[in-house]
Amino acid sequence: MQVKELMKPRPYTVRGDEPLIVAAERMLEHGLGGLPVVNETGQLIGLLEIDDLLPKPENVPFSTVQALRLFGEWVDPGSIEKIYAHYARIPVRQVMRTEVATVRPEDSLETALTRMLEGQQYRRVLVVDAQNHLLGTLTRSDFLRLFVQRGA
């Protein structure tokens, strides 16, 4: 099977110059774990995952204490307004991942699955054309659905 037979065409996207709040709202509205990031001509420039939008626990320098950091800044866990302010002012391109797994529509599903599993770091493979325009996506759920349906 080829990628084009399983991919979801016309995926939801976000532009790199849009604020994070737009991306977060789009993810929530459509139940997405991540959004491909495109430029104004539709070329893929990165990927934003929910994990990239959530504070992460880190050790405070020179201490054994852990605190939350979001976008490189320490965050008071009780300061929801500060987190919202970050989302409203920071552009997607500042937080997005630029290392993404990509395939072409004519590639085999085996190639796509291999790319997704490289280092266990990718949750989705993005399908692009020769000019790097985004055409579709393949997620872990797509592969799971395929494995279950093929076995039935």
TrEMBL record:
Segments traversing the membrane: none
Keyword Zinc: no
A molecular function (GO) term: IMP dehydrogenase activity
Keywords: CBS domain, Oxidoreductase, Repeat
Keyword Oxidoreductase assigned: yes
Highest taxon listed in the record's lineage: Bacteria
InterPro entries listed in its UniProt record: CBS_dom, CBS_dom_sf, CBS_domain-containing
Domain CBS, chain residue ranges per copy: 7-64, 96-152
Protein name from the UniProt record: Inosine-5'-monophosphate dehydrogenase
Pfam families: CBS
Gene designation: guaB_2
Record-listed E.C. numbers: 1.1.1.205
PROSITE patterns per record: CBS (PS51371)
Top EC class of this enzyme: oxidoreductase
SMART domains xrefs: CBS
